[in-house]
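Let's practice the habit of predicting before peeking. Look at the sequence and jot down your guess about where helices and strands might fall. Then scroll down.
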Amino acid sequence: MRHLKSGHKLGRNPAHRRATLRNLVTNLIEKERIQTTLLRAKAARPLAERMITLGKRDSLHARRQAASFLTTMGATKKLFADLAPRFADRSGGYTRIVRVGWRIGDGAELAILEFIGSQLKKKEKKAKRGAEQEAPAEEKEAAAVEK
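Done guessing? Here is the structure:
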């Protein structure tokens, strides 16, 4: 029985586990959506929610606590400037975990960990090289016909 054994060890020693979770939370704050394994997402979720709660306090002590956990200053600034005001009227439940399938290599279950209300930014499609080459040729032919 595993009574009173809480938390996910993630197959790492404590220092490595803490570093992994710090990196996950920092990337989540910077990108607002990350894809990772389900167990890592479940382990990182409470830490991410704690960071949002620190951001909502917005005191010098809270800023120092957040800066000591997050690995980049950009993430700390974004936490206090963008994310905390967005969740000012919400009292918890800032993140969601969506299961997305299994990883090809080892079959680990994958999940997306994201902030509530984050918008998916679609990438702009690049024009195909063949289409770019055809368009100028057609324009040249049209110009030759006009002359």
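How did you do? The domain at 14-118 is CATH 3.90.1030.10 (50s Ribosomal Protein L17; Chain: A,).
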